[in-house]
Amino acid sequence: MPVKRPILVEERRALRRWAHRQRPKPTHKQCIEWFFEQYNHRLSQSSVSESLSKTFANLDDPTAIISTSVRVRAGNWPELEAILWQWQLQLERQGGATTGDILREQAKKIWLQLPQATGQECPEFSSRWLEKFKKRHNIKERVRHGEVGSIPDQAEVEMKGLQTVAGEYNEEDIYNMDETGLYWRMLVSRGLLSQSRPSLKKDKARISLALCTNATGTDRLPVWIIGKAKTPRALKNVCISSMGGRWRWNKKAWMNSVIMSEWLQAFYSHVGFTRQVLLTMDNFSAHYTALEISPPPPNIRICWLPANSTSRFQPLNQGIIQNFKALYKRQWLAFTLESYEANIDPQLGMNIRLAIRWILRSWNNEVTNTTIYNCFRRSTLVSTSLALSTPILPPGISELYNQVIKTGNIQDSMAINNFLNPSDENEDGEDIEASPDSILQGIIDEHLGVPATNEEDDEETLSQYTSKDALQAIQVLIDCTETIEGLPTKHIRSLENLEAIFKNLQLQSKEQT
Hints:
By secondary structure, the protein is an alpha/beta fold. It is 47% helix and 8% strand. It folds into four domains: 52 residues, Homeodomain-like (Arc Repressor Mutant, subunit A, Orthogonal Bundle); 64 residues, no CATH class; 257 residues, 2-Layer Sandwich (Nucleotidyltransferase, domain 5), CATH 3.30.420; 46 residues, no CATH class. β2 and β3 form a beta hairpin.
């Protein structure tokens, strides 16, 4: 007689996801067979019925806090606990410590700002609640990340362990994710043209980007762009998902646990629930907290890179991000040069929509698979016996940089490396010293979506084009392509397909009016 075992939370969640995605709705027998194929464990019909019932509906919510125990006990105030838990992690990362009394006091501060608490009496947050909160988040067993990892030998040992894990996966199934900052319209210098507009102080307008790719470069996830405005004017009526990216925002334009939790859910959906993959990340507190909120399905394994050594072992930091930024800034330099040649301040014509277009073009079309693969090998996550050299700067960028300086009559230009890789471009909220209360307030603002003065919303709205305008432009392109000898026919077919799409949109618009 087989030994009975309980259903794990991750297994029950995976079953619900699979069942909800099937059309038509699967029978209990089909669910039993699917579960057996996945986990080599045969469920009873009553277990399937219970797992798919409303009792476990909270497993479908990506923002719900899920315990790793067999039975789910999420707590009465999941949003409050998510904020408090993120604060606890961030404070620990900065070397701070908490007590039970401090946690209870901070919980009361959070409660007073939650919209759902309006008009309700503040809970006691008793000692019993505190113990359950600690148990849910394993606080007693938590280790401060970064202290042990500062020892080089320890990092080497940890990396060898990660290499062993990575050796169990195909190269195309090994992923790395990292964030980077981007000064998307920083000038070479203020120069003579921009000096005439002292009120324009947006040289360092900054966004954050979340990048993820597999080791071969054949599967690059959409870039997540994090700004300060919910919907900048330049993005009005723009569908960024159609462009191939995702837009998120918060008060400080950096990654937090709320956005990271969304990102993880998107990654799980992208990979699916049958393919076995490895995702590697650094143990930034937003990553850690988000993983508590959104644990992976059984087929996805997430491993932390050794602490304090991501510059050595993070694949994206071995040249992929630098190459990507150089490709982006080459487009910005070309735009700057055209503006200077027309005696126009380049910042006046620049906007976040153009920046996103160039970001996605650089990531999807210009960073090569060879660059990505070589950087994964250099990180030693993917083993290699070869010493690989990967060019970071794209061809012609130095000449373009010097041309911008000359045409713009720049008297105080910075070195090109400082322009391409500003020293403070990658600072995030955890690099800034702050008091425990200000850290807590920042986290509350992020969870509640409190807006901030932003660097994207002072831009002019771009012209809005109609389907008729698009059809006329496509016809011009078709006319031009028909005159080019040797051009593959597939390009004309692509334009004709695009033309058909806009004709259909035009027809739908007429029918609605």
